Amino acid sequence: MEHTAVSTAGPPAATGRSKPSKWKKYRSGYLFLLPATVLFILFLWVPIVKGIVFSFENVDFVKGNTFVGLDNFRTVFQDPEIGVSVKNTLYYMGLCLVIGFWVPILFAVIISEIRRFQGFVRIAAYLPNVIPLVVLYGLWRWIYDPVGPINAALQWLGLGQVLFMTDTHWSMASLVIMETWQQFGSAMLIYLAAVLSVPKDWYEAAEIDGAGIWARIRHITLPSIRNLIGLLFILQLIATSQGYQSQLAMLDGGPMNATMTYGLKIVKYAFTQQNYGVASAMGVLMFIVLGFLAVIQFRMNNREDR
Where do the domains of the chain lie, and which CATH numbers do they carry? Predict the structure, then answer.
């Protein structure tokens, strides 16, 4: 009886050179990324970790830090001014949405419909964004002054004087108007790029069907940039929740704590009272809230990519 011979030899030897490892293949790219990665870790993640550690300590750079557990967080929740600062921050965020959020969208749509001198209008709309903050704050202090141009115009119209900087009802809104005027240009360019990327065939077909400008904006322009509007909405919430610069430079949180935002309160605890532990605890709480908003932003990014 014949038996079929079974080969016991292993697989044929590989010929040629083996495939390079992933590290060797992308070594140049990794080396280019290394400096940016080191800087990212040193100036972003190391401060975040140290801030979390400081939130559980009594920070003393001379005698050394001591562990205090949750005492800093108890101070945060027991300080009545922090409650006021949270309310002011929410009010500030709401005003920025009501007053400032729709302005860049409006300008982007208007500029996209302009047939002539569009480049000049773009530059003019963006120009306030390049004004240095020191010049900006000095300019608007003069504009809001009781004898400034706005109050002069109100008196000429026979209306009463408005104390923009000292009236608790006007102070926060005045800062939001100033920031909207200065910052809307950058968001406007983003919206404008999205509007101009909408296929022109859609507008031409709508014009042939008899659609007017408002119908084109409502049924073509706004639906086309809907995802971008949602994304910048989340980004504005994150940015305005950290606002403190104009409140500090223009009014130092006044009048009567009317512009004392949460971010400004952190600055006060850290650099005025030099209580870095409580300031770090406030920062950790803000980090948690903003992290939640960041998750929403990432999900919206993924949805837009899909």
Answer: 71-305 (1.10.3720.10)
Rounded Cα–Cα distance for residues 123 and 118 (Å): 9
Provide the residue-wise pLDDT of the chain in tens; the chain has 306 residues.
444 444 455 555 555 555 666 777 788 888 888 999 999 999 989 999 999 999 999 988 888 889 998 999 999 999 999 999 999 999 999 999 998 899 999 888 888 878 788 788 888 888 888 888 889 999 999 999 998 999 999 999 888 888 999 999 999 999 999 999 998 988 999 998 888 888 888 877 887 877 777 888 888 888 888 888 888 888 888 889 988 999 999 999 989 999 999 999 999 999 988 899 999 999 999 999 888 888 887 787 677 666
Q: What is the value of pTM for the model shown? A: 0.82
Q: Give the angle 174-259-231 at the CA atoms, nearest 5°.
A: 75
Asked whether the beta carbons of 264 and 244 are under 8 A apart, the reply is yes
Residue owning tokens 């409502």: 218
